[in-house]
Amino acid sequence: MADKKGYYSIEEIRENLRRPSIITPLLKGLGYTLKQFFSRPVTIQYPEEKRDISPRWRGIHRFKKDENGNYKCVGCGLCAAVCPAKAITIRTLETDDAKRIPDRFMVDSLRCIYCGFCVEVCPKDAIEYSNVYDFTGYEKEKFYLEKETLEEPEKLSMTYKK
Amino acid sequence: MDFWIDVIINVIFAILSVLLLLLVVAYSTLLERKLLGDFQLRIGPNRAGPFGIWQPIADGLKAFFKEDVIPEKADKIVFVLAPMVSFITAVGIIAIIPFADSITIFGRHVKLIVSDIDISILYVFALAALGSYGCLLGGYSSYNKYSIFGAMRTSALLISYEIPFVLLIMSIVLVNGTLSFSGIVEAQSHLWNIVREPVAFFLAIVCALAEINRTPFDMPETESELACGFNVEYSSMKFSMFFMAEYAHLFTISAILTTLFLGGWKGPLLPPIVWFLLKTFAFMFFFIWERATYPRFRIDQIMHFGWKVLLPLSLANLLVTAIVMAIIG
């Protein structure tokens, strides 16, 4: 350390000279950034190119159909009951041959918190999550997703061609 | 008659070199953004045309159509004048840079240098000193606390680093025995000055960084502290003129360093103009590279470094050069 007048003693100057110089770390830093310069960018060109996401991603709901093309849902209403955000509206219709089918199934995707309770609770495995995460719209009505839309949520995904 | 043909050729060449400078200025903004993107593992601008080649034009058009705001309490004349001072002094330096060897057009020798004056180095430092007035006046006339801080820091920085820079260049002058740039290029035919004056070369790069206000010496525009520094009140084309002046300085200081240390346009095989541009762009690449690497100094650290480290080192370099030249010369 320098004394009050700002002078260094001979020993201190010798000690300072023995220390590693400031130049080496500076060059090391330059070398590191040059290495980054020659490596590939980690960013992607988002609208054209999409990031690979986990198959377990919780995206927009899919309202599944069975092999005959009928909804798997039997309209029990458990999903609406368990939904903590009250995002699901379901109305059941009883057909003449005593079958119960969903007359209306609507997910308010603005309310939904993607907790996954509806998927867990469904006894008929009629709801699952898709991988659609980039769903946008200008009107609020667009976010009330009816069952016809939810049959194929992939259509909601944003597409962009340059 | 011959005189007037010479004048016309000279005027055409002057216009061409200014156009070249403006083109380089426009595209060095894109170059900087692209290279910074590469250094930061990003892609950089690529939306306007392939590889973003229309980006500078889009930026220019946007700046042109922006509203031009002059603050109510600003000193209006000085406020309007400051970006012009900054830009013209930056462009003026291009006049004394030798681009290449002389060529023959219509049977007469034409030097590829706008004005081959004997006092190039004096001219450079005169214009560089004037250029700092652009920042100073801009900051002062804006009537804004941030801009006046930026302007004061700029002038402090430029005064502190111009002295070692001049001393380092003086050692080049001692070695080459001339103040003219074409003379300095000629003197480096056999041996570049980087070999003769390695210490001066590295110190001059540091001083050059300070001269053109780049990181780690970007005192006038310390974004994080002073909002934007001296040009915080400027908008529209006035802002772009400051911006263009900055990139013109980047090009001209690279060209000056090339001329002083790397033998200018001299080089084997390739045509001279290619060598000149190669060396200049190597310097520009380095300046962008180090911007991607280093953080900014604090203002007191800069002053400390300039006066207590750079000035003694450059004085010692000049002294040693003088002694050696006295012995062998």
Order of helices and strands of chain A: HHEHEEHEEH
Mean pLDDT of chain B: 85
Rounded to the nearest angstrom, the distance between the terminal CA atoms of chain B is: 45 Å
Figure out the total of helices of chain B: 12
Helix and strand element order of chain B: HHHEEHHHHHHHHH
The total domain count of chain B is 1
The computed structural class of chain A is: alpha+beta
Largest sheet of chain A: 3 strands, antiparallel
Oligomer: heterodimer
- What's the average pLDDT of chain A? 84
Overall shape of chain B = globular
Assign the structural class of chain B, choosing from mainly alpha, mainly beta, alpha/beta, alpha+beta, or little secondary structure. mainly alpha
Question: Spans of chain B with pLDDT under 50 lasting ≥5 residues?
Answer: none
* Form type of chain A: elongated
Q: Helix amount of chain B, in percent?
A: 55-70%
Share of helical residues of chain A: 10-25%
Notes on the structure:
The complex is a heterodimer of chains A (162) and B (329). Chain A is of the alpha+beta class and 162 residues long. Chain A has helices spanning 10-18, 23-37, 78-82, 117-121, 147-150, and strands at residues 61-63, 88-94, 100-108, 127-129, 144-146. The longest helix of chain A has 15 residues, at 23-37. The radius of gyration of chain A is 30 Å and the shape is elongated. The mean pLDDT of chain A is 84. Chain B has one domain (2-328). Chain B has twelve helices and two strands. At the A-B interface, α2 of A face α1 and α11 of B.
